[in-house]
Design goal:
The complex is a heterodimer of chains A (113) and B (347).
Chain A: E1 12-19, E2 31-34, H1 40-57, E3 68-75, E4 81-88, H2 94-102, E5 104-105
Antiparallel strand pairs in A: 1-2, 1-3, 2-5, 3-4
Chain B: H1 3-10, H2 15-24, H3 27-38, E1 64-68, E2 78-82, H4 91-110, E3 123-129, E4 136-138, E5 143-146, H5 160-174, H6 182-204, E6 214-215, E7 230-231, E8 240-241, E9 245-246, H7 261-265, H8 271-284, H9 292-300, H10 311-326, H11 331-342
Parallel strand pairs in B: 1-3, 3-5
Antiparallel strand pairs in B: 1-2, 4-5, 6-7, 8-9
Classes of the chains: A alpha+beta (113), B alpha/beta (347).
């Protein structure tokens, strides 16, 4: 596990929530944050939240079923994935979930069902 | 959103996101978002953090404990109703209590199983988990139910088959412990739907042709274009909604979905064994929990069912269990063989 790369104005952060008692394709689409559209302070805050999620991800995922989890990734301007992480919902910082809640749902015709 | 909460949100949200929220979010969504902003991570639940209370030493009698998280994400929360106590007046608490009881009764009265571990394990549930939390899950020791957001989802205790679904995850954990990924995960999910549906059918006294074979009926609000989370009779037809998308479940191996999402499609490809069970039950008629359910339960507790068992292995075991219990030339064995053939699992 490694820390996320520094976020630059060309970085793209993708956040996807999946799992739960059913799979809803519309709710499981990745959501996108284009760092060019946020301030430097906001990028720093987002990086800090991703780092917090990474730190918690070291904990072993607990047993159970129908739990939700978040898939987080950072891409560069060319779309290359520089960093990725899957983490249990309950370990994601609430403020990062809020970023996810408000981020653009731009992947309506791509990805998994 | 009030001016106060807007200013709070603006302190860290990018302007374009605020604009999007302001233009597209309903008043309730905005309030939900505000509450999320105020949420305190200190209260968030951790797996396996719950100490189980004393179970039931008397076979045939459950030991239920229903707690309220009081809109926080803490487990197990405050104990509201325990075994033998009267109604609390809180619908979510009382629905959970009733649902756990109905599930216990199915497993005990039909399959002679004494709770989750067949040794009287306490049935622990928490309701009112989180604020506007739209999910239910099994955390390895207890069941957890959110209230829903009121926009797309009602409270998750409203559907007794969902309560039974979550409890059955516990039963599986104490038996084959089917790995929660790929085909074994889809079998895990399917078994929970099967026994969830059987609990609901039995409580309603329904025969196979009276049952609707829906999972999670009542969970959606009126704003959702859908009937339920899943359909065992017609996988892939439960909902088709602008926000939720379209029910992705296949009903045949030809449409098996290969994906990394959803732990390898555990809630997607479960449509195939779900439909196989439906076909077997319909072929046998009567009450589904009596013969089809018996065969599936025999297989659930069969030592030959492993953590990594796939659809073909499970199908073979159900067929073998049908032959053992009812005879090689029995209607039951024929129905099982035909059910798996029709969904493309068996040749």
């Amino acid at each position: 596990m490694s820390q996320p790369p520094p976020l630059t104005p060309t970085s793209v952060v993708r956040l996807r929530r999946e799992g739960g008692v059913a799979h809803f394709p519309g709710l499981a689409r990745p959501r996108c944050i284009r760092c060019a559209r946020v301030s430097e302070a906001q990028r720093d805050e987002l990086w800090r939240l991703l780092s917090c999620a990474e730190a918690e991800a070291g904990l072993e995922e607990g047993p159970g079923a129908d739990r939700r989890r978040f898939c987080l990734s950072v891409e560069d301007a060319s779309g290359t994935t520089l960093w990725g992480l899957t983490v249990a919902e309950e370990t994601v910082p609430p403020a990062l979930i809020e970023w996810w809640r408000r981020a653009d749902d731009e992947a309506k015709n791509e990805g998994d069902p | 959103m009030t001016d106060h909460s807007a200013s709070e949100a603006r302190s860290f949200l990018p302007p374009y996101l605020l604009e999007r929220l302001a233009s597209s979010g309903s008043a309730h969504q905005r309030e939900c978002a505000r509450q999320t902003l105020l949420a305190d991570g200190r209260f968030r639940a951790r797996a396996g953090s719950t100490a189980l209370p004393q179970g039931s030493a008397r076979r045939g009698e459950p030991a239920r404990f229903v707690h309220s998280a009081e809109q926080r994400q803490v487990l197990p929360g405050r104990l509201v109703r325990r075994e033998g106590q009267g109604e609390s007046g809180d619908p979510a608490v009382d629905e959970a209590y009733q649902g756990l009881g109905a599930t216990y009764r199915l497993f005990w009265e039909v399959y002679e199983r004494h709770s989750i571990d067949d040794d009287g394990m306490a049935l622990l549930a928490t309701v009112h988990y989180g604020r506007d939390y739209e999910n239910a899950f099994w955390d390895g020791r207890q069941m957890v139910f959110g209230d829903g957001d009121g926009e797309l989802f009602n409270r998750f205790t409203i559907a007794p088959d969902i309560i039974a679904h979550e409890l059955t995850h516990g039963v599986i954990q104490h038996e084959a412990a089917l790995a929660y990924a790929g085909q074994s995960g889809a079998l895990n999910e399917s078994l929970c739907d099967v026994f969830g549906s059987l609990v609901r059918q039995r409580e309603l006294g329904q025969s196979v042709d009276q049952a609707d074979w829906l999972i999670g009926k009542g969970l959606f609000t009126e704003r959702v274009a859908g009937r339920a989370l899943r359909s065992m009779a017609r996988p892939g037809t439960a909902y088709d909604d602008p926000l939720l998308g379209r029910d992705p479940q296949p009903d045949h191996m030809e449409a098996f979905v290969v994906t990394e999402a959803d732990h390898g499609g555990v809630h997607i490809n479960s449509g195939i064994p779900n439909h196989a069970f439906h076909l077997v039950a319909m072929a046998l008629g009567g009450h589904a929990w009596e013969r089809a359910g018996r065969i599936w339960y025999d297989t659930l507790v069969d030592r030959r069912l492993n953590q990594d068992s796939d659809f073909v292995t499970f199908a073979a075991l159900t067929h073998d269990n049908a032959e053992r219990r009812y005879g090689a030339a029995s209607r039951e064995a024929t129905a099982v063989r035909e059910g798996w053939r029709r969904v493309g699992v068996s040749p």
